[in-house]
């Protein structure tokens, strides 16, 4: 099996997004448009990291259907090494979202039953043990079962390897609780941080204390257009995302932030610079109708960095 610098485990499925054309009218029919593409938190991040120049392997469950073939094609197009666990008699998972005219989420439905079959026993395969052992970064999202996430994160620890997680949703982020202390970083929005800690925060920097108290060594909490906070063992920093002239779609922005941040981590940059890179990557995605923008590249990320103000280092 070809070695890769980064191994991503988790969601690689179909994203279906309906966008309302006018003012949202709850409880009634709304005119709008429909769009379908390959997606998933882990898969979005994998494609972003590959487009930033890294060698990336994606490991996920997949059905033997047309949707699965769509994911396979998207991996090839982005240059991701695709290593699916395929169940020919099952359907590929899907995520269906309804968005307001401005791109913000109204409601979503996740049909993710197939991920339950990604058990800890799958990680005992020789091929997957080798994938973990030879990767500099292990990234997982919370689409996998709690026990599988814990087994993966704990087996990946040590050897100066980065081990990171993407929260996915408030309902799923709690799956990280058994292994929080083994993560290098966890990426989440404020709702997910609230679900994980049971705490509220009046200021962005408060999240660092709440999450450290929960056992997390490092993480990033995004807050929409307000200041995002990043922390590790020694530092806390905050940065305000730049205003964007147009918001195409919020889908995938958090996954892009994780991608830019982790790419900077692999390059040995300090925490504040990692946060700047993450925000710049998110900005590229927010200007795209795709969850993993085809415009993501090292050159475009460098240009986007010019729009991101220097983070404020708090400690």
Describe it.
The protein is 32% helix and 25% strand. It is an alpha/beta fold. The chain has a single domain (6-20, 33-313), classed as Ribokinase (UDP-N-acetylmuramoyl-L-alanine:D-glutamate ligase, 3-Layer(aba) Sandwich). Strands 5-4-1-8-9-10-11-12-13-14 form a ten-stranded mixed beta sheet, sandwiched between helices. A hairpin with a 5-residue loop joins strand 6 (94-99) and strand 7 (105-111). Helix 1 (41-51) crosses helix 8, helix 8 packs antiparallel against helix 9 (271-286) and helix 9 (271-286) crosses helix 10 (298-305). The protein is globular.
List the helices and strands and how they pair.
Blueprint: E1 6-9, E2 13-20, E3 32-39, H1 41-51, E4 56-63, H2 66-78, E5 81-87, E6 94-99, E7 105-111, H3 126-134, E8 137-141, H4 146-156, E9 162-166, H5 170-173, E10 185-189, H6 190-197, H7 206-213, E11 219-223, E12 226-231, E13 236-239, H8 253-266, H9 271-286, H10 298-305, E14 312-313
Helix pairs in contact: 1-8, 8-9, 9-10
Supply database-style keywords.
alpha/beta; globular; UDP-N-acetylmuramoyl-L-alanine:D-glutamate ligase; ten-stranded mixed β-sheet; single chain; 14 strands; 10 helices; four-stranded mixed β-sheet; 315 residues
């Amino acid at each position: 099996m070809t070695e890769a610098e980064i191994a991503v485990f988790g969601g690689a499925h179909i994203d279906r997004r309906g966008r309302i054309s006018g003012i949202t009218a709850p409880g009634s029919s709304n005119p709008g448009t429909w769009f379908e593409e390959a997606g998933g938190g882990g898969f979005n991040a994998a494609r972003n990291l590959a487009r930033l120049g890294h060698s990336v392997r994606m490991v996920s469950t997949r059905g033997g259907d047309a949707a699965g073939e769509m994911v396979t094609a998207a991996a090839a197009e982005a240059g991701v090494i695709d290593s699916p666990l395929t169940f020919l008699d099952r359907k590929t998972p899907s995520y269906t979202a309804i968005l307001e005219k401005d791109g913000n989420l109204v409601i979503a439905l996740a049909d993710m039953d197939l991920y339950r079959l990604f058990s800890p026993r799958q990680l005992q395969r020789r091929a997957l043990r080798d994938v973990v052992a030879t990767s500099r970064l292990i990234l997982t999202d919370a689409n996998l079962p709690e026990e599988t996430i814990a087994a993966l994160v704990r087996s990946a620890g040590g050897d100066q390897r980065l081990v990171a997680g993407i929260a996915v949703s408030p309902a799923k982020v709690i799956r990280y609780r058994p292994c929080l202390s083994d993560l290098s970083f966890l990426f989440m929005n404020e709702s997910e941080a609230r679900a994980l800690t049971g705490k509220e925060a009046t200021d962005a920097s408060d999240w660092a204390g709440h999450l450290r108290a929960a056992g997390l060594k490092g993480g990033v909490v995004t807050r929409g257009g307000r200041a995002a906070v990043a922390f590790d063992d020694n530092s806390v920093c905050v940065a305000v995302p730049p205003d964007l002239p147009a918001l195409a779609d919020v889908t995938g922005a958090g996954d892009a932030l994780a991608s830019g941040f982790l790419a900077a981590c692999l390059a040995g940059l300090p925490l504040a610079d990692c946060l700047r890179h993450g925000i710049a990557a998110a900005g590229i995605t927010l200007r795209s109708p795709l969850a993993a923008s085809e415009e993501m590249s090292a050159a475009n990320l460098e240009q986007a960095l010019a729009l991101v103000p220097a983070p404020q280092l708090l400690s």
